[in-house]
Design a protein that fits this description.
Blueprint: E1 2-7, H1 10-16, H2 20-27, E2 32-37, E3 50-51, E4 61-62, H3 64-77, E5 85-95, H4 98-104, E6 109-114, H5 122-128, E7 131-134, H6 144-155, E8 188-189, E9 192-193, H7 203-221, H8 223-226, H9 233-246
Parallel strand pairs: 1-2, 1-6, 5-6, 5-7
Antiparallel strand pairs: 3-4, 8-9
Helix pairs in contact: 3-5, 4-6
The structure holds S-adenosylmethionine.
């Protein structure tokens, strides 16, 4: 999968996505990341990429022209025949989640536009952007961190990026449940023991314990997810029993 990031800070993107699983996937050619500096496409003699907002008000707004030129440069360089999906990172967008990550991972080419200052002239957004996405209900200084968050989560869904040991199948949000608690050696640490069932070697019991812990965790911190989870009759009864104990 190929990611293209239109940004004022390409080094931030390339450096930030060069470690751990993402760095390995880039080196192996499972994903590619190209970050292009919008400022390089400014025809202003001072290389300005922003201007004052019409109607007044605080801050500056990123101009249409350099952004559209960056976009055309990338489309021409990649000889893209159809219009690619272009994500504009914005706090006003649809909130990113695991389901969206899976959906975006189906694309071969995915573009990101990182805003700065007060944002971007609406006309270039209307012209090139297909998806407006937020990474949460707070305001960042720029879209770079947000695009890196998305690229990380999407890349994990690209076949071959995760090894078997890093399997995503039991991770949080699979089946609308959070993951169960994890433990490693030693068996006892500062008086705290690993739950006995995990030391039992009894696979069916371990599976059942983990599933129950997932259900309880999700109920405690993200109850709205549980409404979409497919629980068996027995699991429903288990949860109802726990709810009663706690009330
Ligand atoms: N004035 C804008 C508003 O109120 O909606 C916020 C601009 S913000 C300071 C600058 C840039 O950071 C945005 O154009 C966007 O690209 C990025 N950004 C800020 N918060 C974000 C979020 N929660 N998710 C994704 N991108 C965000």
């Amino acid at each position: 999968m190929n990611f293209y990031v239109m940004t004022l800070f390409p080094e931030m993107i390339l450096e930030g996505l060069s470690y751990s699983i993402l760095g390995r996937a880039r080196r192996a050619g499972q994903i590619s990341v190209e970050a292009v500096n919008i400022r390089d496409f400014s025809e202003d003699k001072h290389k300005h990429v922003d201007d004052y907002p019409y109607g007044g008000g605080a801050g500056m707004v990123m101009s249409c022209e350099p952004i559209e030129k960056t976009y055309r440069y990338l489309c021409d360089k990649r000889k893209l025949r159809s219009r690619p999906r272009v994500v504009y990172l914005t706090p006003q967008g649809k909130v990113f989640d695991q389901q969206m990550a899976k959906e975006f991972a189906q694309e071969e080419d995915l573009f990101f536009l990182c805003g700065h200052y007060e944002g971007v002239d609406e006309r270039v957004l209307d012209a090139i952007v297909t998806d407006r996405v937020s990474i949460g209900d707070y305001v960042l200084s720029g879209g770079e961190l947000a695009s890196m968050v998305m690229i990380d989560a999407i890349s994990r869904m690209v076949p071959g990026v995760l090894t078997n040991e890093e399997s995503k199948d039991t991770e949080s949000f699979e089946g609308n449940l959070l993951e169960y608690p994890q433990y490693t050696r030693p068996e006892e640490w500062q008086g705290r023991r690993v739950p006995e069932v995990l030391l039992s070697g009894h696979h069916a019991k371990i599976e059942q314990w983990r599933r129950e812990q997932s259900i309880l965790r999700t109920w405690e911190t993200r109850p709205e997810l549980l409404e979409k989870a497919a629980l068996s009759q027995k699991e429903q009864e288990f949860l109802e029993g726990r709810k009663k104990q706690q009330s």
